[in-house]
Every structure is written in C-alpha cells, then in structure tokens.
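Q: Sequence in, structure out?
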Amino acid sequence: MNFTFSDYQESADFLRGRLNGFVPEVLLILGSGLGFLGDKVDSPVFVDYGAIPHFRPSTAPDHKGRFVFGTLRGRRVAVMQGRMHCYEGYSMEDAAYAVRVLRLLGAGKLIVTNAAGAVNTDFSAGELMLITDHIKLFDFGPLRGANLPEFGVRFPDMTAVYTPRLQQLARSVAKAQNLTLREGVYMYFPGPQFETPAEIRAARVLGADAVGMSTVPEAIVAAHCGYEILGVTLCSNMAAGVLSQPLSGEEVNAMAEASAPRFSALILGCLEAM
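A: Exactly. Output:
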C-alpha cells in the first residue's frame, strides 16, 4: 500500500501525545547485536510499534519491536530496538515508515546499523565497515507511487546518501578509539535466504564490499526527506563462497554479540560527537 501524508501525521501525533514535548534529534535504527543500546537511554519512554497507528510489528528474531525515547550521550534520541524487513512480507515503504514519522517529530540525523556478510576478501569477520554508498538492484524502491512533496522532490539526488561530514566524524572517532574501521559499499539483497556464492561473485564485480537485507530502504527515504545519515556495518561473517563453510543465522548472532563492545563504543562516540 501507499501511505498518505495524513497517515504519517497520525502516527507522529500519537507519539507526540506520549512524549510530553520531547523532540528527538537523532534516530537510531539498530541492527543485530546493538539493540541493547536502547536499554542505556536515560529517562526512557518505551512505545511498542504495535501501539502506533499504521506501524508494522517487527518479527525478526531478537528484535524487541519498540521505540525507546530519551537521552543518550547527551543527545535526544529515538532508538528503534528492531526494524522491519522486506523478507518479513513488508514493502520497502513499510520498512522505512518510521523514518518519515520521526522526521515529522523533529529528528534530523539518522544512525543506521546492520550486520552483514563481507564480500571484500581483504575484510575479516568481526570488523566494522563505514558505509560510503550502497547498491540496490531488486524491485522498486520505497519511493514508488505518488510522491509526497511534504517530504521531498519526485526525483531525489542520491549522490551522497551517506553524509560526508558524518563519515569524517566516524573516522575521527574510530581513530581516537584505536579502532579499525573499514570503508565500503553495502549491497542490498531482499533475503531471507543468504546469498549464493554466484551472487556474491556478482556483487564483488559490481563493487560491493558487504551484503545485507536491510538499511537501504531506510537510507533512501531518509535521504529523500533531508536527514544527515551515518551508516555502519558489522561484518558478522564472510559472505557465501568466500570460505568453504555454510552460513547460519546463529553465526551472525554470535559474532554480533562478540563484537558488541567495539560496535557500541563507535556508535556512542559518534553520537556524542554529533
């Protein structure tokens, strides 16, 4: 379905009624392994997605499916503990719905994270990658249908989806933390099956450094409606065919848990420096 501007306004008005004048500055969409950051928010206000008009529930494993509003490292934040994916049966517009709602509430910056498979053979599982660009070749995007001019133009520029200023900020934070931060292109695959070795070889030829099943719908919509965007990937595994072993969701979750201290330190450092 195509949502109307009134739908987004209704969702935003519902949240305003729960927030008592609180205006978020930064929207954090947390992928696998980082949901616990929502539990570190000061003076939190929790809102389940299912309570918000027009929202979809998050059904992915280990995703709590709620917002946490409050203060984190001195910034007013809206933390998404869980996101929507197209492989859950949702459209790209569904997957990115929250981005527009939080824009109406006042958020102007987006930090989006994910766990993904490393395509670049110079990378190693457990490393972090700064997203400098993305590739999406499948189906239509989240802006399909009637344009909503209240959010942006019909044909938005995608030259710099991931804000150069925030990329530099992330580099500086990583250097100060003595943290290796890879950089590269994230390629979107719809899932939920992992990619085949042939698909990974094709992704490498196209210039991808990591592949995953999220992030791009939210980033496109955020760029359309004027957010500054910082994207960070945890390379939770080497992509299919890079190593002679099968892939599993358990492997992804285990690496996400093991890498959580470094991953969260980088995200919190970037948040504080914004």
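The chain has a mean pLDDT of 92.
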